Structure formats: C-alpha cells, structure tokens
Amino acid sequence: MKNKPAILLTGASGTVGFEVLKQLNKNKFDVSIFDIKSNKSINIFSAFKRDIEIVYGDISKDADIKKVCTNKDFIIHLAAIIPPLADDEPELSYRVNTTGTQNLIRNLEELSPDCFFLYSSSISVYGDRLKTPLIEVEDSLSPSEGDEYAKTKIKAEQIIRNSKLDWSIFRLAAIMGNHKVSKLMFHQPLATSFEIATPEDTARAFVNAIGNKQLVSKKTFNLGGGKNCRTTYKDFLSRSFSISGLGKLNFPKNTFAEKNFHCGFYQDGDDLENILKFRNDTLESYFEKEKLKISLWKKTLTSIFKNQIKNHLLKQSEPYNAFISNNNKMIKHFFN
Question: Model pTM?
C-alpha cells in the first residue's frame, strides 16, 4: 500500500507550478510532472530529477499526455498559455488551455478513473468588475472583450464539470511574485480594486487540498489573499515603482485603460481559506519580499535611468498608442 498518493503536476515550470513542485517534494509525495521541454524547464527541474518523474511533451497531443496518466491519485493542472500571449495567439491558447485539459480528462478517465482533478482557473472569467468589485463564485461569467484567455478557462471548467472524475476548481486572483512586466500592465484601470495572492500561498492551497478532497469535491472556489492582500491597482503600482527605483507613477493621461479588464475583491474568498488554511502572506509581507529581491546596486541603477525606462514602458501602452494615433476602435475598447 502506498504511503503517499501519486500526484501528476502540469505547468511546474510556471511561477505557481514551481512553488507547488517544491512543496510536494518537501512533503515527499510521489510526483510526476508533465511540461513542455525548454532550456528553462530543464534547468529548473534539474535539482529534482532524482526525486520525481519528469516527462516532457505537448499537452495538446494525446499521445504525449497519455504517458503520464496511469495510476494517478491526484492531478494539479496548472499548465496554460497566459496573457498577453494567450490573447495574441488565441488558437494556441485554445489548443493548450482547452484541448489540453480535454486530453487530460479523457486519458485520466480511462487510465486513472479515481483521480481527483484540481484545476487553476482565473478571476478573468468574471470580466470587468470596476463598478461591482465584490465578486462571488455564483456571479455570472462574462469575460472582457478580447480576453481569449478567460474564454479558454471557462470552456476548460465546463469540460471538467462534465467529466466522470471528481474535481475542484480554484479561480485565482492576481498572482503577484516574479511577475513579468508586459503591455498588460496598462490594460488594468488604475481604479481597479486589486486583491493579490502570492505564489507560495496559492501553491499551499493546491497542496493542502490533497488531504481535504472530500471538503472541496465538485466545488468551485475563489482563491485570493483576503482582506490583508487588498489595495487599488494604482497604489499597488505606486509602491512597486518606488521599491524598484522607478520613482513616481507619473505617466501621461490615457496611458492606462479605463475599462475592459478584470480583478476585484473576492467577497467569498474566506470559504477556501477556512477549509485549507493556506494564507501566510499579506500585502506588507509581499512588498517586503520584493524589497529583498532588489539589490541596492540595481535600485540605484534603475533610479538613474528611470526616465528612460518609463519612456520605454510608455511605448508599450496600447491604450496610449490608441489615443495618440486616434484609433477610434481601440479608444472605444479601452476608454469610457
């Protein structure tokens, strides 16, 4: 008889996935990971190769995913194409996020019919909540215009609910930590109610669910950091800029969109916390961690070149570019 359940983890090379991998390995679970082969994945998995099974492949290819679906007790499915790539290449996003999930379900139903399916969905499925920032699981799903990522998540949720497997779905809030700056930074209205969760806390929720499957079975939850992880997007960015050495958040008018994104406060987020007890971080602890990542030398150098850096960032602002080029279609998309 096995001492520990057999866990299949997808997306282990991602920010949350890597935290899940570390926590699973620390607790000595029987872990198999399935990921796309790249220099990044090979490098970060090298420290674990003696302790876990590593299988590389394409989740959208049935023959590849079939290799890891036998005799699994749990799957933590995190693999996904995320924005901005997900929105720029919707066919790729659908193939990985939706078809990939379908492939997993089909093979697990056949090869591991008792496997419990833990899935990471997204707050993006609720769409623009600027005027109604308090979000609950039962709220309607209404992705913002052009949010291909959210659409793939909704379809994947439907596939999971209609499967023969037992399951639970966690809709993740804004996961902040090792976050890459991209053009999406300017899609978020500054007035947005902004609740974060750290990768460490998010990973802990998935790992803790393994021992509590009967309490989360066939349920959907909102996963966020709670009241101690809430602010506005403007304040969050302002603190982030200050910590990094970029100074004030002093971009021109119309640099940030005024609508058509997502995020808000999870009014029912404590439901999952009460079951899984996964929250350790607060907004303050998040910023303390971020401070420690930035050396004095790096902060000084950033401060010296802050104007050039912000000018470079400004060029990536699609709302600003729409405004200065008088692109009426995009102006209507981003502005009221």
Answer: 0.95
Are residues 319 and 202 located together in one domain of the fold?
no
Report yes or no: 330 and 318 within 8 Å, Cβ to Cβ.
yes
Measure the CA–CA gap between 127 and 50, rounded to whole angstroms.
43
Positive/negative CA dihedral, 286, 287, 289, 290: positive
Backbone angles phi, psi at 254, to 5 degrees: 75, 15
> 87 and 167 in one domain?
yes
Three-class DSSP category at 298? helix
pLDDT tens by residue, 229-278: 999 999 999 999 999 999 999 999 999 999 999 999 999 999 999 999 99
Number of domains in the chain: 2
What is the number of alpha carbons within 13 Å of residue 5 lying toward its C-beta? 20
Compute the distance between CA of residue 331 and CA of residue 318 in angstroms, rounded to an integer: 9
- Residue-wise burial string across 116-152, b where 16 or more C-beta atoms lie within 10 A, e elsewhere: bbbbbbbbbbbbbbbeebebebebeeebbeebbbbbb
